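Side project, low priority. Logging it here so it doesn't get lost.
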Amino acid sequence: MSETRIRAEMPEEVAKHEADPYHHRYPRAESYHDLAVRLEPIILELERQQDDLLIIAHESVLRVLYGYLMACNATDIPGLSFPRNEIIEIIPASYNNESSSIPIPDLPPQIIPPSPEDLKIPVPPSEAPSGTATPMNLGSPKIAPWSSRSGTPRKTSTPPVNGGSTPQEPGEGSLLLVERALRD
C-alpha cells in the first residue's frame, strides 16, 4: 500500500505513527518494537559469533539491528537511513561499538536499485535537529575514520534521514557488516 493511499484511507493511523513511530503498529503490520522482540533470538546468536558477518536485510531489520548494536535510542531507530552503495561496518569493542561506512568501489549508479516509490512515511525528529539522525552520528558510538580491512584512511559519509537528497536513496537490501575483531 502506498503512502498516498495510507494517508487517504487511514489518516488516524498516520497521525498515530507520526506521534510514536517506534511503537505504532499499522493494522495487520508490526511495529519496530514488535520487530525488535522478534529479532531477539537472532541478536543473541549474533553476539555469540566469533567470525565476521555480512547481513543483507530489509532496511527496517537493519535499523533494529544497528540500533541495538550501536546503543541507539529507540525513538531514533525509525529515522535511521542506510545508503545502498555502502556497507556499514560495526566493530564490537568493550564498551562502545565502532561503526564506519565502506563505499562499494566502482559501482555503476545505474545498477544501484532505487527505493520503492511513494513509501516514505515521515517520522518526527527526536531530540536531534531534523536531518541529523543517521547511523553515523547517533548516540555515543565512535566513528572509525578507516576500515580495519584495508588499514588506510578514507572519508566516511553521513547518509541522509527521511528524504535527504542523494543520488541513491536508502531502501531494502542495504548491507550491514558486523566485524568481530580480537582486542587486547
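Brief comment: The first helix runs from residue 3 to 9.
Revisit when time allows.
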